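**Backbone geometry record:**
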Amino acid sequence: MSETVPPQRQERQPGRQEEMQPQPQSSMQDYRGADRLAGKIALISGGDSGIGRAVAVGFAKEGANVAITYLDEHEDAEETLRLINDAGRRSLAIAGDLGNSDFSREVVRQVIHGFGRLDILVNNAAEQHVQERLEDLPDDQLERTFRTNIFSQFYLTRAVLPHMSEGGAIINTASVTAYQGSPTLLDYSATKGAIVAFTRSLSKQLLPRGIRVNAVAPGPIWTPLIPASFSEERTAQHGAHVPMGRPGQPDDVAPCYIFLASQDAAYMSGQVLHPNGGTVING
């Protein structure tokens, strides 16, 4: 299988976008907005890099003011804020661990204090750790992956809902692994399957309140999560197995979130979009 990117490895999670070669395309440089989110306030978890950054910039180019959360990747977060500001919109970055419910409440408090309301929530923060055998999966990794990937979506959404009015939109980041599975990412794949079920169930609960809930299930996208998770050899072949033969870029994925956040998707809720390089997914 041919290489799609140069071999590389980062030794800690979350990964750093500034260290990747080549740099992911996540600045939405060629995207032209049409005021589809004019005047909206958006909150994006994991918005410092990768898909979260591209979504943040895309939202800003569509007229939204954007708040992001991140763990501790300060340089990446500063670049995202610069891109939002360059698009002429206000921005806010809040660092901390969304696996802690108290931090989720503090995030929402700061967003409401800074912007006055909240119209769009993107639950995007995630981590993954390779483990070849279930017998070797430690308890702390299992709990940590669930706290970051799915507990955080419950915590943050629960904190947001008292401030979200009719017309609001919630978009959750799932994964192709929710549908295909992954033999070395059992805990990660399980959380992504839970996110699909969370999305469908929450949609049914919130539609009477006029709030839509959808999800995006990306395939192999070139983000900091990849070199922070896999060996140099596996990273170099990221995306080579999909029909398009390459990894996707965050800029390839962000338009799905823009669509779901906008009135263009006014008749969609409980659905999942699949930007995955051509893999056919049923369900």
